[in-house]
Write a sequence for this structure.
């Protein structure tokens, strides 16, 4: 059974179901087109869909709605807070050598060395998340700047702190 033909056959009904989630016709058409491309890719891999028209229709509704929901979530995540219009520039193309700051502001050279050792063992993303948080930037903004979810930013900051703690525990 050719799934793309069924998608075209049920097009009006699928778009009407997607209309309940969003009134943006362009977004609905874009999501429907993405569903077609996705399902066409399955057909090219010679994957066959078996079942009745009702089961195929429910599968198509599921795929179309999920693609539309993903697009709506991305739009919601990309919205900028109208109250806070500050932007922070982060150069992610900076070589790793420049990211490790020399902690000379600290009085104790032992602490500065341990921090630099811990920073050198971190990934670029983990280091940037930790430094942005140390500068007082909210996790919501860090997630936006690094194009990740908020839970990923929280996790990176947590693991950075654990690595710093472990660096200081090694000598004991």
């Amino acid at each position: 059974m050719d799934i793309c033909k069924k998608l075209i056959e049920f097009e009006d009904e699928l778009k009407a179901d997607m209309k309940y989630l969003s009134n943006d016709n362009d977004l609905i058409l874009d999501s429907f087109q993405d569903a077609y491309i996705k399902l066409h890719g399955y057909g090219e891999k010679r994957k066959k869909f078996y079942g009745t028209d009702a089961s195929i229709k429910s599968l198509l509704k599921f795929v179309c709605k999920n693609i539309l929901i993903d697009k709506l979530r991305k739009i919601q995540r990309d919205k900028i807070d109208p109250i806070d219009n500050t932007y922070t520039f982060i150069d992610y193309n900076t070589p790793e050598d420049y990211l490790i700051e020399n902690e000379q502001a600290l009085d104790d050279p032992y602490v500065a060395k341990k921090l630099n050792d811990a920073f050198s063992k971190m990934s670029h993303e983990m280091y940037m998340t930790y430094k942005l948080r140390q500068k007082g930037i909210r996790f919501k903004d860090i997630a936006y700047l690094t194009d990740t979810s908020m839970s990923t930013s929280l996790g990176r900051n947590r693991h950075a702190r654990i690595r710093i703690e472990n660096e200081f525990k090694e000598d004991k």
In short: Residues 96-169 form a domain with the Arc Repressor Mutant, subunit A fold (CATH 1.10.10.10).
